[in-house]
Amino acid sequence: MSNRRQFLQTSLMAATALALPRGAAAGGIDAKTATSNGARVVSTWDFGVGANQAAWPVLAKGGSALDAVETGARWAEGDLCNSTVGRCGYPDRDGVVTLDASIMDGDGRCGAVAALQDIVHPVSVARRVMERTPHVMLVGEGAQQFALQQGFVKEQLRTKEAEQAWREWLKKSEYKPQINAERAAVKPGNKENHDTLGILALDASGKLAGACTTSGMAWKLHGRVGDSPIIGAGLYIDNEVGAATASGVGEEMIRNAASFLVVELMRQGRTPMDACREAIERVVRKRPVASKTLQVCFLALNKHGEVGAFALHKGFVYAVCDAGKCDALLESRSVYTGKPA
Ligand code: SD4
Questions:
Q1: Atom of ligand 1 nearest to the CA of 45
Q2: Could you tell me the distance, in angstroms and rounded to a whole number, from the CA of residue 100 to the centre of ligand 1?
Q3: Ranges of each domain in the chain
Q4: 2-330 is classed in which CATH architecture?
Q5: How far apart are CA 10 and CA 43, in angstroms?
Q6: Which of 18, 149, 168, 181 has its CA 20 to 30 A from that of 310?
Q7: Is position 271 annotated as part of the catalytic site?
């Protein structure tokens, strides 16, 4: 298990030492920086660097985008120990860790699990739902029962650190989602209470896939499901157009079918960054007051390998990996200002 803070520092140092790919300053990366075999993988947040590094070998040897995103997501769920994905995720307000995940390929095949307990790799359970059932989503006990039938094993997911944080939270029991600018990277010792891994890949054969995995909002109501396992909200992929994923307060993505929206905007000719920006503007238009205190972030990759991101507030970073270079961490400088693009 890696130490999150150490990992964060290493990643950020690596990122500052790098020349940003062309287009990065504008919040997007063009297709020309794409790679020897045309493959590319992008992921949300600083830990996206590690997820991309795990996913890249699959793409480098000509493997599928679907295998690559599952591999990257499994890294975040199992090897990274942070408070927001997989094994070390923070619990809900009743002290129970519940995980949400989805996976989708560009042909419209998809699977998801929500409110899954005691299983480390929800993304792989989601893939089994996609491949071995006629359904798209399983939730709660049924999802766990299916996972056990598929050979996944139960594991206690609430770490000592998560338990301590939860007990601390219980003292005030204040349910207040934080904007990620407050996150640990900015103020050491300050823990974010949401950060999902969304990972999108384009493989050498030109096919797209994506996955999204999270423990959701810390201290959420028991039974709350966010956007990450909801196809069209936290994740959407279409080989004809591109791929999109989201992070932040999931209720806003669900309200706007936001990842679907980003892909549809790209279908109409928008660049990935413009599509992400328009989706943010929709979120703000619907809930202008709430938007002041909630973070919402989108990341998109089109079928040509162009990347774009846009966030409601500062602090969103994403990682890009291609041609074996997997340490680029980019700050999404494109945040909502209320002014026209
Ligand atoms: C959720 N979207 O459950 C997830 C949490 C997240 O950055 O992405 N946080 O709402």
A1: 7
A2: 9
A3: 2-330
A4: 4-Layer Sandwich (3.60)
A5: 17
A6: 18
A7: no
